[in-house]
Input
Amino acid sequence: MSSAERYVARLKPGSTADLMRSIEDRLADYALSDDAGCGELLKKAMRYARAEWPAMKRVLESGDVEVSNNISEQSVRKLKMDLRNAGNIGSESSAVDNAFMYSVIESCKHNEIDPGKYISYLLGELKTAHEGEDLTALLPCYCSL
Output
């Protein structure tokens, strides 16, 4: 769906706009109830929801705004599973190195570059680089392999 089509679909009766209006009404009712009969965690959650509601409604202003973060969540799922399975990496230094390599590999994948070819290319270019040289062009997003 294009952003214009998504915008129109969100405003149709029974769609996102109606659902959000219903949630907004419930938040308003809750605000009038003065937190009656609620535990501390629910009170905290409701205060947060009321404070963030204007930002949440921005999804109705443009079709370009995503309703969820599923795309970004799915892109880091494998990384998070690998990190969880790795358990203890060993040291803070090796954790930084590990995070750097994951970042490079995921950036390559995002830019549809073979990570092995990119790392070989990068190491070759870094051999001839001079101190203080701008290496921005070597980043995966600017590299055309």
Notes: The mean pLDDT is 83.
